[in-house]
Amino acid sequence: MMSKVIASEMVKYKRTWLWLLPLIIPFIIIIANALNIFLRFDTIVQQVEQDSMTMWDPIWIFSFFLILLAIPLEVTLITSIIANVEHQGNSWKSIFSMPVSRFHIYVNKFAWSTVLTIISGFILTVGIVCLGMLLGNESFPWTYILGFSFLPFLAAVPLIALQLWLALIFQNQAIPITIGSLGILLAILGSQLPLGRWLPWSFYVQVLPSPNKEMASLPWDIVGTSIIIGFMILLVGFIHFRKKEFV
Amino acid sequence: MDVIKTSHLTRKYGKQYAVNNVNLNVKEGSIYGFLGPNGAGKSTTIRMLLGLIKPTKGSVKIFGKDLAKHRMEILSKIGSLVETPSYYGHLTGYENLEAARRLLGVPEKRIAEVLNIVRLTKAADKKVKQYSLGMKQRLGIATALLVQPKLLILDEPTNGLDPAGIQEIRELIKTLPKQHNMTIIVSSHLLGEIEQMADQVGIINKGELIFQDSINVLKEKSKPALHIGVDQAEKAVAFLKEQGYYAKLAGTRLVMEDTDPELVGKINYALVSEGFWVYRLEEVKRSLEDIFIELTGVGESV
Questions:
Q1: Does A198 touch chain B (CB under 8 A)?
Q2: Chain A interface, mutation test: which of B102, B136, B148, most A Cβ atoms within 10 Å?
Q3: What are residue A183's phi and psi, to 5 degrees?
Q4: Sequence-separated (6 or more) residues with CB below 8 Å from residue B159
Q5: Partner-chain contact B73 A15, CB within 8 Å
Q6: Closest by alpha carbon to A113, among A65, A75, A63, A57?
Q7: B103–A93: do the CB atoms touch at under 8 Å?
Q8: How many CB atoms lie within 10 A of CB A27?
């Protein structure tokens, strides 16, 4: 049954931005990084030598803020497109008049959002490695490379579950998009709020390595926690969605 | 056998009854016209038949099985179109059907077949947002037909269409039960429309089913009646009863079912010879509209 739902969704997303979005976001991050470094190459090289850093460090410093903004933006847009495909043509009543379980539909939409977001993170990893090589780096600090590309996208699972829920529940997509944008504030302030580290917006920020401090290993504990929290939000969202009457 | 059987089907919104104690019986192979003014509870009932909303009270049996327990199995044999058309505007007609086809798991050649049935083959590669309302509605019917349903549920399929579009959909609906051996329930707020395609009729008003029978019974009600204007009407009714004629009193007039000329003559003679003043003998033909308005009481408010 699930495979039927996946195959059907594939058709629906034709001619939408959904296919481009996971490419565009990492592309922008890489281009912005490249521009930042190449436009003021001499200054940066000088500074790197002065502070005895590597040519990786300028990437980390710049990526931190880009990723901070990019992930909520990407997740909000992806989930909104996935939900709005159904909202805009009144398709819910038609779908649920067919022998299809709501659970399959919900989980399938979550899977699409998650896989596309993670693919985005993977593309960013490849892009950053290429950029690093282009800058003449010879060692590869994988905890940083993954920490500034793949891992925050993986730790965005709670955010995906939350945004998808909002996008599916509200017919008017201005609501989830507004909440998603305001969420960026929470992402920035998250660590300062009480219980802030448990907010869906704060997990991906927590896995970002601090550009100035040494980091010994990858923060798998935070990634693991975020995935568990993500599945809990998914479950709560589904229980709510299941009861919604589509008219 | 009844394809659809609801018992005491009720749905409340707050304190308001949208549907109240409705017992629908839809016979196999029939076209059931589900008639009622706007806001009478047609769509609410139909949404309950599809399990889109849950009844507050009562149950729905389709193909002899309880909808609450066997929803998936029942839905796999139903095609439906609920009110406003559902579609993916950025996709072509063909792609819309393809998305539904993959979900339903029917063979690909079925798409060409249903496109042909609703005559959208030529427009299949156009984006649906460029379709007219009538085309969108036909695409909706095509989607409903994909699974070769045993039961087709169409909620206001002609709403918002122009006369040509209405006729087209009507002709389509009429041919389906014969060619494809299915039962159809079609709702409308227009009596004329139901009259032209249905063989069974249910009339719902203010959430209550006020009439349910074959269309012929409804048509029977539209037979002309004899109206007699006479002084001392009450006395006249009693007198006619003595003579063996049954007449009803309606205001200051007598109403009789039969308009046979010989009988009318006899009654007139009897009344006049008894000393009544007969000042009017009138044959009144009632349209189905009149009956509809009489049954639903909508006329009162106008």
A1: no
A2: B102
A3: -60, -30
A4: B83
A5: no
A6: A75
A7: no
A8: 15
Per CB-CB distance under 8 Å, the chain A contacts of B105 are: 4
**A247 Cβ under 8 Å from any chain B Cβ:** yes
Q: Are B196 and B40 in contact (CB under 8 A)?
A: no
Residues A89-140 have pLDDT tens digits of 889 999 999 999 999 999 999 999 999 999 999 999 999 999 999 999 989 9
Can you name the residues that pair with B153 across neighbouring β-strands?
B80, B185
Tell whether B164 is within 8 A of chain A (Cβ): no
* Residues counted in chain B: 302
- Three-state SS at B139: helix
| Closest residue to B88, CB basis, from A4, A91, A100 | A91
Q: B297-302, long-range: CB within 8 Å, 24+ apart, which pairs?
A: B297/B205, B298/B37, B298/B205
Q: How confident is the model at residue A214 (pLDDT cuts 50, 70, 90)?
A: low
Q: What span, in angstroms and rounded, lies between the C-alpha atoms of A67 and B165?
A: 54
Cβ contact A11–B99 (<8 Å): yes
Q: Residue B20 CA to chain centroid, in angstroms?
A: 17
Q: What is the pLDDT of residue A195?
A: 81
Chain B within 8 Å of A191 (Cβ-Cβ)? no
For A86, which residue in chain B has the nearest alpha carbon?
Answer: B88
User: Which of chain A's residues have a Cβ under 8 Å away from the Cβ of B50?
Assistant: 96-97
Nearest residue in chain A measured CA to CA from B153: A97
Give the closest residue to B228 by CA, choosing from B193, B263, B185: B263
Quick one: what percent of chain A has pLDDT higher than 70?
Answer: 97
Altogether, the residues listed in chain A come to a count of 247
B133 in contact with A, Cβ within 8 Å: no
The residue of chain A nearest to residue B127, with distances taken between CA atoms, is A15
Query: If contacts are CB pairs under 8 Å, which of residues 67-86 in chain A contact chain B?
Result: 85
Q: Please return the burial class of A174, using the count of CB atoms within 10 Å of its CB with bins 0-12, 13-18 and 19+.
A: exposed
The pLDDT of residue B152 = 96
DSSP line for B243-302:
HT---EEETTEEEES---HHHHHHHHHHHHHTT--EEEEEEEPPPHHHHHHHHH-HHHH-
Residue whose structure tokens are 């205001």: B251
The model carries a pTM of 0.87
List average pLDDT for each run of 10 residues in chain B, which is 302 residues long. 94 94 94 91 95 95 96 96 91 97 95 93 95 91 94 90 85 85 91 88 92 88 85 90 87 85 90 91 79 67 40
CA distance A177 to chain B (A): 21
Phi/psi for A149 (5° steps) reads -140, -80
Q: How crowded is residue A55: how many other Cβ atoms within 10 Å of its Cβ?
A: 18
CB neighbour class for A3 (10 Å; exposed up to 12, middle 13-18, buried from 19): exposed
